[in-house]
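Example 3.2
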Amino acid sequence: MISSTSYENSDTIQRQVNMFFSRDDHLKITKKNIIQICFSDILCKLCFTMHNNDIVLDYRYFKFISTPDSYEKIIDYIVFTIQNVLKKQETFIFHVNMNSITLLHIEKYFPFIQQISEVLKTTFPDKLNTCYIYNAPYIFSKLFSVVSMFIDKKTQQKIQLVENE
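Structure, written as tokens:
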């Protein structure tokens, strides 16, 4: 049997909880704040290592956290992930999911693409074993054939577009 004092305590607790939940001055529920709170969680989904030390980059998460202000943090995290893999082995393998990328995204994120390319080229020369690209849209494969003219032959051979089945 529940006493009346239990109900009173329950009411008091509920009022306190309701007061806590109603105070949102320190946290406005906006997309920007939620993304800031979840930034590290999203980074961990954007770039992670598999059990065999292959590195996965999933573009679907990039677009949630990518702003010119966040590029450096994203690059630092990817570099950190590569460095951890290179502590265990000589080279690294990328698996890149390009699902949902469009030509507009490529144009929008071109400064990031340039930055990350330069960092990877200077920080990890000759450390890429293979880069598998999955779910690339048709336009990407056409763009890649043009861009590959500017990539050295050795690196070109390390990049493989994986066809959708």
